[in-house]
Amino acid sequence: MFPLSFILLLILAIPFLFLVLNYHISELAFVKLGIPANLIFAVFILSLLGGLINIPISKRKITQKDELPPLMSMFFYYPPRMREQIIAINVGGAIVPILISIYLFKFAPIVPVIIATTIITILTKFLARPVPGIGIAMPAFIPPIVAAVLAMLLAHNQNPAAVAYISGVIGTLVGADLLNLNKISKMGGYVLSIGGAGVFDGIFLIGVIAALLA
Q1: Does residue 40 come out as left (phi exceeding 0), alpha (psi in the -120 to 50 range) or beta?
Q2: Disulfide-capable partner of 207 in 50, 145, 169, 214 (CB 3.0 to 4.6 Å)?
Q3: What stretches of the chain adopt beta strand conformation (E)?
Q4: Cα four-point dihedral sign 170, 176, 179, 185
Q5: CA-CA distance, 155 to 164, in Å (whole number)?
Q6: Domain segments of the chain: what residues?
Q7: pLDDT per residue over 129-152, tens digit each?
Q8: What is the pLDDT, as a whole number, of residue 64?
Q9: Phi, psi for 64 (deg, rounded to 5)
Q10: Which long-range CB contacts under 8 A does 22-26 form with residues at least 24 apart?
């Protein structure tokens, strides 16, 4: 029987171990991508902390009418409420991966990048589903796997990791988020974040996994 203090210490250590594990996974991907070693930790921390930051890019007031049961609506009237809908871009889950993609673009073959990104854009457009209060939801592991396979097929000897990362990030950003903005704008008064929950979710995760698999 383990003492209670040991169990509590183990529980407190789990988030730290999770963080260390994800850092090493991200480090492997960044090394494979050719990012300078002295920048890897800074990129990881910026992605992690940036996952908590959403920069508003669009705001608008919307009218939201509460639905009342039929019997109550006969006797009571509640005026529509004004709520604010905010569309934001996540620093760790979108801006950082975009900057990495721009950096990698000069090392990647153009034609494979364009073909793979186009296919991922179409795929994620098909898979993505707007979810009220959250934003865009889709299966997390399908885009990176497809991006990695495309990179190996199209650029086997031409830096496939960079092709996988760029196509996974940009294709998902365009297909899942940007091409669904018209649907997002009809989803009510919420904060909807492009890039998801940040470093270990959404677009950043797709890019890291794609690079590792390639």
Answers
A1: alpha
A2: 169
A3: 54-64, 81-90, 129-131, 135-137, 191-194
A4: negative
A5: 9
A6: 4-213
A7: 877 656 677 887 888 999 999 999
A8: 58
A9: -120, 120
A10: 22/199, 22/200, 25/208, 25/212, 26/199, 26/208
